[in-house]
Amino acid sequence: MPSGCSASDPMSSKLNVLDLSFNSFTGNIPQTIANLTRLIGLSLQNNTLSGPIPDLNHTRIKHLNLSYNHLNGSIPVSLQNFPNSSFIGNSLLCGPPLNPCSPVIRPPSPSSAHIPSPTVPPKRSSKVKLTMGAIIAIAVGGSAVLFLVVLTILCCCLKKKDNGGSRVLKGKAVSSGRGEKPKEEFGSGVQEPEKNKLVFFEGCSYNFDLEDLLRASAEVLGKGSYGTAYKAVLEESTTVVVKRLREVVVGKRDFEQQMENVGRVRQHPNIVPLRAYYYSKDEKLLVYDYIPGGSLSTLLHANRGAGRTPLDWDSRVKIALGTARGISHLHSVGGPKFIHGNIKSTNVLLSQDHDGCISDFGLTPAYERPCYFISECRLSCS
């Protein structure tokens, strides 16, 4: 770590996010980094760090990226729930979610090293004569297996031909099983030649492409002003949120320029970062981190029964302050012209500690002119 920024400093114990990526640091990761009990984000990728990974069990770590270093040893149990994209590029690391560690083979003891193994007498080969009934049974069974193989190949060829004719990839939509969330598909307008044109922002640790995203199981989270949001679970147990935009009025060049402006917003604990986007004539997709706490709207209005526990005043103040910090960060980074334009309770997501996180920022220019007066903005008071 650079001088003047050791993990043992009194001020460093208040750190929430530590980003030292792309700095060519060498040596071991300090064990004292585990003393940062408020740490929720750690980015040390693309350095030349070596040695084992310290146990961060006493931290609140939620975002971790140690990829492309020279780390070795087994991954601590407290960090094994992160995806393998957080550890790739370290060939000497092992343990979940990477390859399992090789067991240590103990050498044989001296007392047993010279004990000769008992010799097994060779078996005399014997010729078994097959009866006519057995030969007929084998022939019939082989013919049935061959028929099934040919039938399977034929079905696969026909299915591939149908898919090639439509040239459309679709994502599977799986409801939660309760019947209240409609089944719907995202990515129905994605064309085959463009299936790998998913644009990731710098610093993103995800390592999937658009084809992997469209194969993922999708659950409808809700519909908002700009489109429908889906919870997508990929094959590597990576969970993201995919927002399918509708009625975007700007062209590709203006859309990409706006996404670049959104991508310049650095990671902040009170902002849901945009990780990637996709643009085609018939489909526009945005990829965000999945926030498990749900929205403020759900917390306030979902349970109206007799046993409902109202949200206490301290939690409301904490959520409001976190949301204000996120909006302040957006204005300080993007300037006065970079506004949200759609602040409401459904766009305030909650972390596990009930911190408010702003989502859906920077999308207003893709739909309409920005509003500069309170009467023009779509505000929601919950």
TrEMBL record:
It is found in: Membrane. Keywords: ATP-binding, Leucine-rich repeat, Membrane, Nucleotide-binding, Repeat, Transmembrane, Transmembrane helix. ATP binds at K252. Its main location: membrane. Residues 178-190 have a biased composition (Basic and acidic residues). Residues 169-190 are annotated as: Disordered. Pfam families: LRR_1, PK_Tyr_Ser-Thr. PROSITE patterns: PROTEIN_KINASE_ATP, PROTEIN_KINASE_DOM. InterPro entries: At_inactive_RLKs, Kinase-like_dom_sf, Leu-rich_rpt, LRR_dom_sf, Prot_kinase_dom, Protein_kinase_ATP_BS, Ser-Thr/Tyr_kinase_cat_dom. The chain crosses the membrane at residues 130-154. Residues 215-382 form the Protein kinase domain. PANTHER family: OS05G0588300 PROTEIN, PROTEIN KINASE DOMAIN-CONTAINING PROTEIN. This is Protein kinase domain-containing protein. It comes from Salix suchowensis.
